[in-house]
Amino acid sequence: MCGIVGFSGTREAAPVLIDGLKRLEYRGYDSAGIAVADGERINVAKVKGYVRNLSEMTHDGADIKGFLGVGHTRWATHGAPNDINAHPHMSSDGRFAVVHNGIIENYAQLREELTAKGVKFVSDTDTEVVAHLLEEYYQGDAKKAVMRTAARLEGSYSLGVVCLDGTGRLFAMREQSPLILGVGVGENYFASDVAALVPHTKNVIYLDDGEFAEITPEEITVYDVRGIPVNKPISRIAWDVEAAEKGGYEHFMLKEIMEQPACFKATVEPRIKDGRIEFESFSLSDEELFGIDRIIITACGSAGYAGQVGRYVIEELCRIPVSVELASELRYRNPIINEKTLLIVISQSGETADTIAALKECRARGARTLAIVNVVGSTIAKLADHVIYTWAGPEIAVATTKGYTTQVAVLDMLAIYLADRLGRLEKSRYDELIVALHDMPGKIQRAIDLNRRVKRLAKRLCRHNDIYFIGRNLDYAVSMEGSLKLKEISYIFAEAYAAGELKHGTIALVEQGSLVVTLACYEPLLEKTMSNIEEVKARGAEVLAVVLEDNRQIVKMADEFILVPRTEPLFTPIAQIVPLQLFAYYVAKERGCDIDKPKNLAKSVTVE
Ligand code: AGP
After folding, report:
1. Cβ(371) – ligand 1 distance below 6 Å
2. Cβ(493)–Cβ(447) under 8 Å?
3. Which of 1.10.300.10, 1.20.272.10, 3.40.50.10490, 1.10.150.120 is the CATH number of 454-590?
4. Which residues contact 385 (CB under 8 A, 6 or more apart)?
5. Quick check: CB of 400 below 6 Å from ligand 1?
6. 89 with 130: CB under 8 angstroms?
């Protein structure tokens, strides 16, 4: 959830660190700080709030001198978001500065132990114990102190450490929390994700759990948990620096919405060869495939909602039972899983703690595992038996858009691929679906072209305080994502309900002033949905209908409408979610919300 960055070179570190923090700020924005070593001491600047506050306070880093340092942008877990709890944290002797992402689970016990030895704590964070442990274990050898400290820590962490021991060294450690090393020329780096590294280098090393690195301007040495050097491959980042910048848009979210036709294309087209779907890294033998008797999709938030769409499509085409489970629940449920279960985990970041834990749990019980992930080299990508990457490029806005649509695209392709291999899809239908996939970027673009109309609607409807999203079948699956988008960035109470379920309780809340966004693109159940529109209208609600472009019937019933381009029905969710993303965006904008950095949220949820 927090972002960490480190630099060791022969130029001023502070501006590099602050620029890196700006690029990582979507991971958390409760406070920001840097610690830079100038040879004699470690200089620290930290402040509550955004990285821009830190930038102003230090004159873009010009006030903090030194060639070696670490930086941090925080999503608070232990201790309120304030200047004191902001990272970096220092050892009492000033020799070590530490930045941390994750949670030290045994911090209370360590704190008690250190306090009994006379250590004075200044913050409420779990991280501060690390700085004091380093001091405790330092006997002239920083590497040994790092190893002994790591051996005492339980929980998840990526840690960056500046050590002032005459030579001036940087250490980076990883345990169940993302950390990537950047290999430069005459300077080296580390960061929580590649967004902070791309302006400097495209050559990276992915650390594995338990490994740590010693970083100087000239070299990076990676060690295993016993301190033995490990040979690590250098990988190339495929993203350009522009991909992680706003490119003239007011917000990353809007930019990312607009990128969806291209992202869909990048995810789908390379996997269709001569009219056939081929995945580069998903290969089950016939025996394995025919042995699968159920599919479980697990994920969190929007990734789970992408899974909800996938469930309908996979069941429809493959006739295999599919359930969608919240990762945070599945892992603790003593789930009934065996080698006949195909577990599909979905994650944009590939670092979501609950999803990782569910994946591990189900793997241990024998499930075959497939991950749908956007970030190359992420933990989930490494842990699963098979990976299908979504090629959405870096997603910076906390509210996912292109991440979600590319996940749904992969699920659609997977459903077609599996159904075909299982012999459950007629050749003519297969070909029809492939043509429809090729058509989708154009359809998504037409959905984006609804921009101006949706903006006007948002202006008119943005003052509603309770908004219900209803739909049936695929419409219901999309309504979950539509309502999440709206609530997370506009802070309006918004919930999704299966349209038929409303009358079993929730309709009691519907009244004059309620807005009911009715998704009505799933044609086999349109008449039922129309009855539900009548029911909420009778209670005084205003209705915004999201319907296929040639459906005049519902348009007449609704107060407002959005016309979605007609697509292959199974793929309509991808076109349908776009105006809902835009609606959330413009409502949030009307209400003056900080769209890319919604309150209380962070992009990558690496804690439970
Ligand atoms: C989406 O807009 C959310 N911010 C959130 O629900 C997100 O989808 C969820 O935390 C899962 O993240 P992941 O895809 O990186 O695993």
Report:
1. no
2. no
3. 3.40.50.10490
4. 363, 368, 369, 370
5. yes
6. yes
> Under DSSP, is residue 529 helix (H, G, I), strand (E, B) or coil?
helix
CA angle 26, 346, 181 (to 5 degrees): 50
143 is catalytic: no
Residue ranges matching CATH 3.40.50.10490 in the chain: 252-448, 454-590
Helix (H) or strand (E) holding 4: strand 3-8
| Cis preceding linkage at 270, omega within 30 | no
Measured CA to CA, the distance from residue 589 to residue 593 in angstroms comes to 6
301 lines ligand 1 (CB under 6 A): yes
User: What mean pLDDT is predicted for residues 274-302?
Assistant: 93
Atom of ligand 1 at shortest range from CA of 484 = 2
Quick check: is 2 catalytic? yes
pLDDT tens digit string along 65-101? 999 999 999 988 888 888 899 999 999 999 999 999 9
What is the per-residue pLDDT across 494-541, written as a single tens digit (0 to 9) for each? Answer: 999 999 998 899 899 999 999 999 999 999 999 999 999 999 999 999
| Locus of tokens 């970027």 | 441
Between CA 375 and CA 380 the distance in angstroms is 9
| Helix runs in 175-231, H state only | none
Distance 400 CA to ligand 1 centre (A): 7
* Block residue for tokens 């060690």: 223
- 297, 305, 348, 379: which to mutate for ligand 1, most atoms within 8 A of CB? 348
Residue ranges of E strands in 514-559:
515-520, 542-548
- Tell the residue nearest (CA) to atom 9 of ligand 1: 301
* pTM of the model as a whole: 0.87
Q: Which of 3.30.565.10, 3.30.450.20, 3.90.1150.10, 3.60.20.10 would CATH assign to domain 3-240?
A: 3.60.20.10
In Å, what is the CA distance from 208 to each residue of 187, 223, 444, 477, 582?
22, 10, 38, 36, 38
Q: Is the beta carbon of 488 within 6 A of some atom in ligand 1?
A: yes
The closest alpha carbon to 224, from 147, 301, 139, belongs to 147
Which one from 2, 163, 263, 593 is the annotated catalytic residue? 2
C-beta 596 within 6 A of ligand 1:
no
- The CATH T-level fold of domain 252-448 is Rossmann fold (3.40.50)
